[in-house]
Amino acid sequence: MTVSAHSDARSGISVARLAERGADLLRQEDPDLHAILDRENRRQARSLVMVASSSVVDPSVLACLASPVVNVTAEGYPGRRYHAGCAQVDEIEQLAIDRARRLFGAEYANVQPHSASVANELALSALLRPGDVILGMDLHQGGHLTHGSRASFSGQYFQAHGYGLDEHGRIDIGAVRALARRTRPRLIICGATAYSRTVDFAAFRSVADEVGALLLADISHVAGLVVAGLHPNPVDHAHITTTCTHKQLFGPRGGLVLLGRDATTPVPGGHGSTLAEAMQRSVFPFFQGAPAVNVIAAKARAFDRCATTEFRDLAARIVDDARALADAFARFGYRVVSGGTDNHIVLLDLTDTGLSGLVAQNALESVGILVNKNHVPGDRRPASVTSGLRLGTNTLAVRGAGPVDMPTCARLADRVLRAVQPRGDRDFHLDAGTAEQVSADVAALCERWPLPRYPADDLACTTPAWPS
Ligand SMILES: *Cc1c(COP(=O)(O)O)cnc(C)c1O
């Protein structure tokens, strides 16, 4: 333990020098790659990002990702590694685990999953056998690929049924209950990727208990609101909770598994293993090998930042921004799915506008406004085209934009969507006047809202941030 205590103040400087050295070497030896990465920095600083899954990691999180701790092979868990040289790595992983548990009030945390999709994969495989029945939110209604879509392992290895939204664009728990009674799933998955309303985890648990199913809550999209107390916490309602760490936790790309009061519950048919033991084994050695320790360090750093009052304020701004954004779009005549939002997501139904989601997304991107096309209830277009847009306020809020700024953001998008002339579902024409004016307004806004704590010279843009 004392080994790390000997590293003195100079080590902090050497980390900074390493990053500088690396950037110098990259510039000298690989100018092509360096130029691309450089352009990407500028694109991020100069785009109005309203992608719902977007986030901005803090420079201190980036420093963890770039740490030489990445050189360490560390199969196993703290105190039980299969390799030597893991003293610091053990401390790092334990810190990440402790912080995650404290943040979510969890009994158990596993910080090794490489992504949320992988976290779902290993949760499903810890609990189920191939062919078991699962119930998840339909992909086209707002669910995630890993919740039972035929395009993913979850719909191929398991017999998946999907629930959806009612005519008001909300989850109808009565319909979920009826479907569960009929299909008798072994596992129910709740949580979504494109759903703007609060998920009632307690109600889902009562359905699961009634039909003898386990409950998995995937909070990838709303984890930050859960931390801030602005969305119910599923950790003690679900048997297993999963999340990614790179959306609303503003951390590195990665996954996290949490267990609450059911951590010591035996896995049905699991030969006496508890859920915690089954999860531990499912991550390593069943699915993954050595963990990405630099990413775990970055997770620990992000969790620490999420525990601050500043983060609570940010989460509150994210929700306030989303409400203001939804209101603004509604006032400009757009159909907001479910009539509004409880979280950071605003779903627009473009069916009546004559624009496909794809045309809208591409037209907006051409002026530096980033959103993503998304299926809306009753959508007849394929997933690659769709009839809707999904917007989110994580990045706007972290860059300092508040509710009073949302009408401006909505108006910029509206100017483009009004002016764009679709040529079918994929191509479009946008007049040069509108494109130039809106691009200039977007650039001005981005200058007003720099990436937080990033060096300001990233904004000094000499080349266009996005292709015209
Ligand atoms: C984004 C998302 C995931 C996937 O996360 P990755 O880490 O990119 O695999 C899983 N579940 C939900 C609900 C998501 O929104």
Automatic annotation (TrEMBL):
Pathway per the UniProt entry: Amino-acid biosynthesis; glycine biosynthesis; glycine from L-serine: step 1/1; One-carbon metabolism; tetrahydrofolate interconversion
Class in the EC hierarchy, top level: transferase
Location of N6-(pyridoxal phosphate)lysine modifications: K247
Domain Serine hydroxymethyltransferase-like: 26-407
Cofactor(s) it depends on: pyridoxal 5'-phosphate
Residues involved in (6S)-5,6,7,8-tetrahydrofolate binding: L139, G143, H144, L145
Reaction catalysis annotation: (6R)-5,10-methylene-5,6,7,8-tetrahydrofolate + glycine + H2O = (6S)-5,6,7,8-tetrahydrofolate + L-serine
Compartments reported by the entry: Cytoplasm
UniProt site positions, description: Plays an important role in substrate specificity: H246
Protein name per UniProt: Serine hydroxymethyltransferase
Species lineage: Bacteria, Bacillati, Actinomycetota, Actinomycetes, Micromonosporales
Classification via PANTHER family: SERINE HYDROXYMETHYLTRANSFERASE, SERINE HYDROXYMETHYLTRANSFERASE 1
Keywords tagged on the record: Amino-acid biosynthesis, Cytoplasm, One-carbon metabolism, Pyridoxal phosphate, Transferase
EC numbers, comma separated: 2.1.2.1
The species this protein was found in: Micromonospora lutea
Function: Catalyzes the reversible interconversion of serine and glycine with tetrahydrofolate (THF) serving as the one-carbon carrier. This reaction serves as the major source of one-carbon groups required for the biosynthesis of purines, thymidylate, methionine, and other important biomolecules. Also exhibits THF-independent aldolase activity toward beta-hydroxyamino acids, producing glycine and aldehydes, via a retro-aldol mechanism.
Top-level lineage group: Bacteria
Alphabetized SUPFAM superfamilies for the sequence: PLP-dependent transferases (SSF53383)
Similarity section: Belongs to the SHMT family.
Subunit structure: Homodimer.
Keyword check for Ubl conjugation: no
